[in-house]
Structures are given as structure tokens and as C-alpha cells.
Specification:
By secondary structure, the protein is mostly helical. It has 42 helices and 8 strands. The chain has a 5-stranded parallel sheet, sandwiched between helices.
């Protein structure tokens, strides 16, 4: 076994069902069917002992076992800790080393000297890092020796580790791998960040959930006999069962307390205190020192801190007391380095019993020792102890260093939290800027960048706006291009325009400059997102000229993309502009400009009906975003949306199977685009899902139109025609207020509303009913569609093939509604959709067949 699990002295009893689940999963892993087991239970119920037993079973079956841990470091944690710990044990394996060698990001995480630090032009891939971790772990298993990876205490996992876990499980294919991860259910409060991850993972077909229940009376009797070496009287067992409620750890402490059954301690805290109070005071002191580090602490760090205490004049004294603590089962050893509390509950009880002054003093001692010798702890650990010790200047400096460390290993969520700690401490540390070499505005913009990379556009925009509002006009103007990007990503385009105008008013008086070129490019982009194409063209042309004059290729690339989008009807011109933009952006190393050009070129080809070319460009853009660690910034998410849209239009109705990990902020957006295929598949839950999203309409009108329109379609298929018609009116009115009266999506919505009315009219005619009311409503929808087709202003002035397809279908549905279901109208819909929209071609052919049959052309039908 590559790493020995925490030594525990609990005897193993029961748990036959859980062991059988494990053995079956291990057998599947040996055959190339990887899976995961999520082991849950309350603290003390016996998870660690079961994991130890699982490791023993796996080892006996010639499996390779690696055990890693998550540690409690507050809200942040150490990025990727359980995976770096596991991979460090797997190094030396030829296949694992090969996987590491071909992925610089992974080498950078495991061995800081392996690659050069990456700058903005070559941002090391977060996606590559995730892929590298998954590939290296997968490579470690063999047919004759599968890998069992055990991860303890997921409830303490850092955000990046949670993301890697989701990615790893999503990528399981044919690896000889069994992943077993444990977590404490009693720690999962309502807003615990692990909850949504578990909700997703527990639905995965390769994941088993093993919930560890307390001991039954029979199991407790067996357990008690092994603990005490004799049969335990029934009276005592009943008392222990009542007090412990079957909790293995509490039961053991009660059985070992040597207390008369009539006076058994009421709580676990009581029994733990009783155990400690019987020990040498020096052991109690050492346990208190260790508890300040959490459940685990390195022997070197514990000794360094203890040597400052009166009970420990030298290292020999520390060693003597440590041996006694181990002999009395307070502490145990793990490998040659770690000192671990026998149980996390014991560590928590000891820590809770310290006086406030002791807590502060001991955290300060840890802080000082780590500051003196960086090998004893990370910047994140230093920040943690400094915060608990109320050493705010040290906490600020360490948090900033920890943020830089987190960004170096592509952990933007952790970096953001550390930077927000710096911001929160700023006013309390007078010389904060001198300490870190940057002022508050720099920190806020760095935090905005981290938030953007972490897929939190709202947070990024808020931080950037705070920086603009907190500095002078000249500096705010220089920072506005980045802020405008974050605002656009957060669907605050109008504010991006206003901020750009204010900044331009400042820079205009200073004459042409590189800063003004960047601002002009950002301003043009903001105007374009507000559909002010003519204004955007003028500003973009200025940006191109100024960028060339001052050698700012990234600004020129950005402006050329705006001009290319505007030139949608001039295919050759737009193509040349996009090509030049991509070339400049790549040469300048500006990922944002590069991905913006790729995103818009994908949109250009999609709306031109060139689906194959759009797919190729989109896939290349996604791989570029993933391999450079920016998949969850705005244009990366946009490309993922186009991927799902193109997949659906080309006829692939299967749910997404990508291994991409998805941050919470992007999950709703991506799930919305999946509504199209869900309706086409006939998923029965679409109406309920669509109704649930109404509360989010104002947050993102595009999401409102997509989810709402698909819900109208689903309600029609379900036969709830009035609900579909009502939603068509409601959504059209909302979109008119959010955008304008002739938003082009209104063509689609009108066609869907007409389809609902036509379906109901068909049924009404079968029973001899009156359809005049529905026909009157349909006339409203048809007029709305025709007006939008005439007066709506698609970019370039002409409707694309999809728009023309919906116009044709709306006219055909209206004819069906009024009882004049003419085949030629459906032939027109088929022809318009035949650019590659397979589902709508199929649906239109179905309606064409109906019309042909009704007109007497049964062979044609």
C-alpha cells in the first residue's frame, strides 16, 4: 500500500453489506469498469475504520491503494491537496511519470521547478491540469493491479479539489480505478459547498452511495466484546447504546472509560475530557498544541511550536510526551511525517476546551514558526494562523502570497478568496500597500480577474467597478477596458458603454495613446453589444488606426473583430477581418481578444447556416479556452453554448457527455441551452423546469427567451395549449421590454404560439367546436411575426436561414390554424430549414405529410 491509512485501534465488526459493495466495485475496476463510492456518515460512526478495512481488502486482492486527505483550513483550504498528495505517492510509476511529463501544468503543480512560470501570454491550462490529474491517476491502474484511491474528509475539500473530483468522475471510461471518498453528513449544513457537488455526483451512473449507519444492538455487543476482551453485561450495553446511539467512536470511549454503568458520562465531550484529565498534564498540553493545527500536523511543525512551551525545554521532552500521547491513544502516527489525532472529534474537543487566550497564543506560535521556516507550512496555512492570532499585517501579506500561489497552480476560486481577505483587512493595516508592493486598486483588479477566471462574472464586475470608483479619473480610464469586459460578461452592456464614454472623455484631452487605443476597442465592443452598430463601426475604425500607430496588437484585434461582426453580409470582408484579428490576438498572447474573435466567427458561420464550419471553429475555440485555463470566462461559456446549439440543430439530441467541470455560475446558463434537445426528446420535466426558471428571467433575457420558448413548445407537445399561448404572450411582452418591440426572437415565439393554437384548433374541429377565438389570437401572432420580419434589424439587414425557416413555419402554422393547411407552405418551411436544422426539417415534413394527406395526395404523404 503506497500510504498507510491513519492507524486506528477500533476492531472491525459488521459492515458486511458495505464490504460486499466495495468488493464488487473492485472486481469491476479490475475488468476496466471504473467507478466511485461515496461513503457518508456522522462523525465517529466508523468511516475511517471502514476505509482502513477496505484498504486491507484491496491490498489482499493485489490492488494498489493510495490514501489522501482533505484538511480543515477554514473556507479556503490548500488547492488540489488530496490529488497532489495522491500523485506524489504515484510518482515513479512509468505510466504516471509519462502522463506528468506531457502536461506542463501538472508538472508545475507537483514540482515547481519543472516548468517556467507562465505569463499572461501563455496561461498554463487549468483544463490541461485537470486532464493531467485524471490521466495520471487513470494510468496508475493495471489489469493485474487496479488502483484504489481513497480520499478522506471531502467535507473539508477546497473548491479546486471539488472541481477535480467532478471532472475525474465525469471522465471515467475504462480505467482500472476505484475511487472511494468519505464525508461527514453532520457537517453538511444547508449552504455547505459540497452539497451541490454531491447532488450531481450521486446521480452519476458510475457512483455508488454507501451510507454508514450506527451500530445495531447485535453489532455493538460484538464490538464491546472485542473492546473489553469479554462479554459485556446487557445492562452496560443498553446504557452504552442509549448514550452513544450506536456511534462507534463514542461507544468505544464509553466502554473504555472504566466507569460504572450507572454513572456513564452523558456526552462524548464529557467522556473525552475524562480521558484526557487522567493523563499527564504535559500530554494534555501537547494535545492542545496539536489541536490548533487541526486533525493532522507535521511532526517537525508540532515540535517547533511545542519547544516554545514551559513543559518542553528540548526535543527529547517533546519526543517523550509524544510517545506517551500515542501510547494512550490520543495521537497516532501516519507515515514518517504526520502526527494525527485518533479521531477528528477528539481534535475538535481538545481545541474547544482551550481558553481564548491560549487559542490566540498558540495560533501566533504556529504563525511565527511557519514565517521563520517556510518548509513547515504554506502561505495559506500562515494566513490561517495569522488570522486566528489576530496578527492582521501578517495575515494580509500571507493572504496575498497565498493568492499568488493559488493563481500559479490555476486555482482562481482560492485566489479570489485570499484576495478578498486582503481587501477586507486593508483598512486595518496602515502600511498594506508597502507590505505587498501593490495598492488596493491593484488588488481589486486582480480579484476581479480571479473571479472572472473562476466563472463568477457578477463578482468580477462588482470588484472592477469598485476599483474604478475608488481611484482617480485618469487611472480609472486606463482600467476601464478590463472592467468593460467584466460588465459585458455580467450582462451589464449599457453600464459598459457608460463607463467607456466617461473614460474616453478623460483620455480624449490627452491625445492619441496606447491606453486610448485599448479603451476605444473596448468601447466599440460595448456599443456592439448594445446593437449600436453604426457607432461601433466609427469607434472601432479609430481604435484600429490608433492601435497600429502605437503598436497595440491586442486592441487592434479586438476592434477588427467588432468590424467583422458588423460586416456580416460581406462574407469575404468579414472573413478577412476575423482572420487578421485572430492572427494579431495570438501573436500578442491576448486570449480574450482571440476567444472573442473565435466566438464571433462561430456565430457568423452558425447564423449563415454553415453548420459544419461553425462546429469546427467552435470546437477549436473550446479546446483553446480549456487548454489555457479560461473556459469559464465569458467567451469560453459562449462557445460551450454554441457547441450545444449546433449539436442540437445537426440532430444530436443526446444529453451532453463532456467531462468539463462546470462552476455554479455557469451551470444554469448551460442547462438552459439543453432545453432544445430535451423538448425534442420528449422529456416530461421540461414544463416544470421552465416554470422554475421564470424567477431568473430578469437576470438574463437571453436565458429567459431560450427557456421560455422551449417551455412553450413542450407545453404544446403535452397538450396544455392554453398555458402555451399564455406563456407566449407573457414572454413576448417581457422580451419587448427587455430588448425592443421587434426583437428577432419574436418570430420564433410567434411561430410556437401559432403551433399551439393550430393544435387546439385541429382538436376543436374534430368535435365540431368553434375555432374563431383561436383564429383571432393567431392573427395577432401572425401580424407580430410579419412586422418583426419587416422591421426587426438583424445584423447585416437580412434574415439568416434559421430566421427565414421560422417565418415560413409561422405562415404554415397559421394556415393550419385557419383550416387552410396548404402543402406548399410546409414545403417552403422544409426548404428553409434544410440548411441543416434536422429536427425542424423532420417536424415540417410531418406537417407536410398531414397537409398532403388532407388534400388527397396519399402517395405523396
Amino acid at each position: 500500500m503506497d500510504r498507510v491509512a491513519v492507524t486506528v485501534d477500533l476492531p472491525f465488526v459488521g459492515r458486511a453489506e458495505q464490504l460486499e459493495t466495495f468488493r464488487a466495485a473492485l472486481a469491476r475496476a479490475r475488468d476496466g469498469e471504473p467507478s466511485a463510492i461515496l461513503l457518508s456518515g456522522d462523525a465517529g460512526v466508523g468511516k475511517t475504520r471502514l476505509l482502513t478495512r477496505l484498504a486491507e481488502v484491496a491490498q489482499a486482492a493485489d490492488a494498489r491503494v493510495v490514501v489522501s486527505h482533505c484538511v480543515d483550513l477554514g473556507d479556503v483550504g490548500l488547492p488540489y491537496l488530496p490529488f497532489t498528495e495522491a500523485l506524489s505517492q504515484l510518482r515513479g510509476d512509468e505510466a504516471v511519470d509519462a502522463a506528468v511529463a506531457t502536461r506542463p501544468a501538472l508538472g508545475r503543480l507537483l514540482d515547481s521547478g519543472l516548468v517556467e512560470p507562465a505569463g499572461p501570454a501563455e496561461q498554463t491550462a487549468r483544463g490541461q491540469l485537470f486532464d493531467g490529474i485524471a490521466s495520471a491517476i487513470g494510468a496508475a491502474g493495471r489489469p493485474d493491479r487496479p488502483l484504489v484511491l481513497i480520499i478522506e474528509d471531502l467535507h473539508w475539500a477546497d473548491p479546486s479539489s471539488r472541481d477535480v473530483l467532478r471532472f475525474l468522475i465525469a471522465r471515467l471510461r475504462s480505467e482500472r480505478l476505484l475511487l472511494v471518498a468519505s464525508y461527514r453528513t453532520d457537517d453538511l449544513h444547508r449552504r455547505h459547498p459540497l452539497r451541490p457537488v454531491l447532488s450531481e455526483l450521486l446521480r452519476h451512473p458510475r457512483v455508488d452511495h454507501v451510507e454508514l449507519a450506527p451500530f445495531t444492538p447485535a453489532e455493538l455487543a460484538q464490538f464491546g466484546a472485542v473492546i473489553t476482551g469479554r462479554s459485556v453485561p446487557d445492562e452496560v450495553l443498553q446504557q452504552v447504546l442509549r448514550r452513544s446511539e450506536g456511534n462507534a467512536y463514542f461507544a468505544q470511549e464509553l466502554l473504555e472509560s472504566e466507569t460504572d454503568a450507572a454513572v456513564l458520562p452523558v456526552s462524548l465531550a464529557d467522556v473525552l475530557h475524562a480521558r484526557l484529565e487522567r493523563l499527564d498534564p504535559a500530554v494534555q498540553t501537547l494535545a492542545g498544541i496539536a489541536s490548533v493545527a487541526g486533525r493532522r500536523v507535521s511532526g517537525e511543525l508540532l515540535a517547533a511550536v511545542a519547544l516554545g512551551e514551559p513543559d518542553f525545554p528540548d526535543g527529547a521532552a517533546v519526543d517523550r510526551v509524544l510517545r506517551e500521547a500515542i501510547a494512550h491513544h490520543v495521537l497516532v502516527t501516519e507515515d514518517a511525517r504526520w502526527i494525527v489525532f485518533r479521531h477528528a472529534l477528539l481534535a475538535e474537543a481538545v481545541y474547544a476546551d482551550l481558553l481564548p487566550g491560549e487559542v490566540t497564543r498558540l495560533h501566533r506560535a504556529y504563525q511565527r514558526r511557519i514565517a521563520e521556516d517556510g518548509s513547515l507550512g504554506s502561505s495559506a496555512e500562515l494566513a490561517h494562523h495569522a488570522l486566528r492570532a489576530h496578527e492582521l499585517p501578517v495575515a494580509l501579506s500571507a493572504s496575498y502570497a497565498a493568492a499568488r500561489d493559488a493563481m500559479d497552480v490555476l486555482a482562481p476560486t482560492e485566489a479570489l478568496r485570499h484576495l478578498e481577505t486582503v481587501i477586507s483587512l486593508w483598512d486595518a493595516v496602515p502600511d498594506a500597500a508597502d507590505r505587498i508592493g501593490h495598492d488596493l486598486i491593484d488588488v481589486q483588479m486582480s480579484a476581479a480577474r480571479a473571479a472572472s477566471r473562476a466563472g463568477q462574472p457578477g463578482r468580477a464586475a462588482g470588484l472592477a467597478v469598485g476599483a474604478l470608483d475608488g481611484t482617480d479619473d485618469a487611472r480609472a480610464a486606463r482600467l476601464t477596458p478590463d472592467a468593460a469586459y467584466y460588465l459585458i460578461d455580467d450582462v451589464r452592456e449599457q453600464e459598459a458603454v457608460q463607463r467607456s464614454e466617461q473614460a474616453l472623455a478623460v483620455l480624449e484631452s490627452q491625445g492619441p495613446s496606447a491606453d486610448r487605443a485599448r479603451l476605444l476597442a473596448a468601447y466599440a465592443r460595448s456599443l456592439l453589444n448594445c446593437d449600436r452598430d453604426d457607432d461601433s463601426r466609427v469607434i472601432a475604425e479609430r481604435a484600429v488606426a490608433e492601435a497600429r500607430e502605437f503598436g497595440v496588437p491586442e486592441a487592434e484585434a479586438d476592434a477588427l473583430t467588432s468590424l467583422a461582426v458588423i460586416a456580416v453580409n460581406e462574407a469575404d470582408v468579414a472573413g478577412d477581418l476575423f482572420a487578421r484579428s485572430l492572427e494579431l490576438a495570438r501573436a500578442a498572447g491576448d486570449l480574450t481578444a482571440e476567444l472573442r474573435a473565435t466566438h464571433n466567427l462561430t456565430a457568423n458561420r452558425y447564423y449563415a447556416g454553415d453548420l459544419d464550419r461553425a462546429w469546427t471553429i467552435c470546437q477549436a475555440g473550446i479546446e483553446r479556452a480549456r487548454s489555457t485555463g479560461v473556459l469559464w470566462m465569458g467567451y469560453g461559456v459562449g462557445l460551450l453554448l454554441y457547441r450545444e446549439l449546433i449539436r442540437y440543430v445537426r440532430g444530436d439530441l443526446h444529453p451532453p457527455t463532456s467531462g468539463d467541470w462546470v462552476p455554479e455560475a455557469a451551470r444554469t446558463t448551460l442547462s438552459t441551452i439543453e432545453f432544445y434537445a430535451a423538448v425534442a426528446r420528449g422529456d416530461a420535466d421540461v414544463p416544470a423546469r421552465g416554470r422554475a426558471m421564470v424567477v431568473d428571467w430578469k437576470r438574463d433575457p437571453m436565458m429567459a427567451m431560450t427557456s421560455g420558448g422551449c417551455t412553450i413548445d413542450a407545453l404544446t407537445w403535452a397538450g396544455d395549449h392554453q398555458a402555451a399561448v399564455d406563456l407566449t404572450f407573457r414572454l413576448t411582452e417581457f422580451m419587448s421590454e427587455a430588448w425592443n418591440d421587434y426583437f428577432l426572437g419574436g418570430i420564433w415565439l410567434s411561430a410556437l404560439g401559432l403551433a399551439a393554437l393550430a393544435d387546439r384548433a385541429d382538436r376543436t374541429r374534430l368535435t365540431g367546436g368553434d375555432t374563431s377565438a383561436d383564429e383571432a389570437t393567431g392573427a395577432i401572432f401572425l401580424e407580430r411575426m410579419e412586422q418583426t420580419a419587416r422591421r426587426g434589424r438583424p445584423r447585416g439587414g437580412r434574415l439568416g436561414p434559421e430566421g427565414r425557416g421560422w417565418v415560413a413555419r409561422a405562415r404554415a402554422e397559421h394556415a393550419r390554424l385557419t383550416g387552410r393547411n396548404h402543402p406548399e407552405l410546409w414545403r417552403a418551411a422544409v426548404a428553409e430549414f434544410d440548411y441543416g436544422y434536422r429536427y425542424e426539417v423532420a417536424r415540417s415534413r410531418w406537417r407536410l405529410a398531414e397537409a398532403l394527406a388532407a388534400s388527397g395526395d396519399r402517395p405523396g404523404a
